[in-house]
Amino acid sequence: MIEFLAKNFNFITYSLEFLAALTGVACLNKYRNSTTRYFIFFLFYIFFIEIIGALLVYAPNSFPIHLLRSIGVNIINWYNVFWFFGSILFIMFYFHALLKLEPYKRLVKIIGVLFCIMMLGHFTLYFDVFTTLHPKMYQFLGLSATFICITLYFIEFLQSDSILSIFKTFGFYASIGLLFWWLIITPVIFFDFYNTVADWNFVNLKRLIFLFANIFMYTCFTVGLIISKPVND
Known about the structure:
By secondary structure, this protein is mostly helical. It has a single domain, classed as Rhopdopsin 7-helix transmembrane proteins (Up-down Bundle).
């Protein structure tokens, strides 16, 4: 069973992402006047990026991939730019829309500006590193930005009169899924120097950790979309 999960890590993850995005499509009308619709768009975005990544790996000779490679897009820099950079900006935009208190919204804006400056600055100064490696700085920045946004969300929720309805609020499920995913996978990144063909035990362990983190996160998203009640803005 463990071997099967490790070997089929990518396909299981794609299936989870597809299920979450499909659930989002089914619930889009339900959340049409809610900030949750932004998160549904985020799920579309993630699924699209992962499909492109899958084509880069499994259909490298297809026309779209040939076109992307001709302009210098490869697996690593695509992941860095559109997954880490794009998804974190999407998450901060979602929490900015979700928060009600102006000081918290302003803080998220400041974090977003600082995040962009640091990412773009690193990209400009260390372009070769950006396109060939997976710098741990990106992981740390992503975790920090996400953690601050989620913390502000829970603080604001605890100060409101809606605390009893937290389990019917999609923001709760999105926050829990994102928080645990980042907390689980971030420590693993710091041991990436073991991730080589010389140590298949670590390679498979890393795949399993990422897989179970993905299962938990996308299950939170999917279940949250189904059972939550839309809050009109």
